[in-house]
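Hello Y.,

Per our agreement to keep a running log of every chain we model this quarter, I'm adding this entry. I've kept the format consistent with earlier entries: sequence first, then predicted structure.
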Amino acid sequence: MLNEFLLWAKQNNWNVISCSDMIELPDAIKSRYDIPAQWYDFICTLQVCENPKATKWFLTPNDYLPQEDCFQWNEFEMQSLEYGNNESDVTSYWNHHLPIFMTVDSEYSYFAINTENGNVVIGYEPEYEVPTVVAEDFNSFISKIIFGEIEL
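Predicted structure for the entry above:
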């Protein structure tokens, strides 16, 4: 699946930087989420995977490390908490939705994997915690991107 996606990315002028060794996820991510193997096998060999404008990107293992002066992997969760949404509902939602892709183009949105059932969902500002299911699992999500059923 990775090779097919990399071909799609090249054809769509995406900036993709691979690495030769698998990159481990930070312990904080591994302890918070049940990591889906389909997603991890795909993403652990990538350093960067973003559109030409760098306004849409797959979160790679290094993105889950604390960052300064840029979007955090849990930016939308932090925004919801900052704007006074019900903290326990927000935290409960994000404890079961692993963000895997972010967009800051015309509107803020994300794709996440529901770690309880494997579904991939999309959520939009301002109600990030009201998602829509777009694929039954990560491999289906990638297939839908390749075949143009999901636009990035």
